[in-house]
Amino acid sequence: xxxxxxxxxxxxxxxxxxxxxxxxxxxxxxxxxxxxxxxxxxxxxxxxxxxxxxxxxxxxxxxxxxxxxxxxxxxxxxxxxxxxxxxxxxxxxxxxxxxxxxxxxxxxxxxxxxxxxxxxxxxxxxxxxxxxxxxxxxxxxxxxxxxxxxxxxxxxxxxxxxxxxxxxxxxxxxxxxxxxxx
Length: 182
What we know:
By secondary structure, this protein is of the alpha/beta class. The chain contains six helices and nine strands; from the N terminus they run E-H-E-H-E-E-E-H-E-H-E-H-E-E-H. It is 30% helix and 25% strand. The longest helix is centred in the middle third of the chain and has 14 residues, at 105-118.
């Protein structure tokens, strides 16, 4: 219930606790991704969210953030061009690690539309959500999209590394149900 309150539209039924953030991302990938699936990974990012799909046998295409004079930006046209009807998921982290940049809510909404057009999952490692200057808690993909999956951790923004508490948050029942089995 406490973790669900970090989101705008989620209830406790939409959250599963895991053994740290690494447990959240690993459990998500092994539950959702299958050999031959297509995944688009936005880099730089936490390695596990793109290397585990590759190790399962998914075809992973990479899109690197563009460096600008004021930080890093995501080219949404390139993202749309990389997705196909076979795209199972788009994976990224926000706030970004290691750049520290935060995608705007408008960018996130556009990413939702790209994923929705392909009926793909939008999986975001949000371990640093809430740990940004001037932004606070940015929007979560779990709130913005019915197939949005938020991966979280108490170790970063809440300084509870020794607790080893991570979480998966999503409103997608078809995804959440098998998590209870794994």
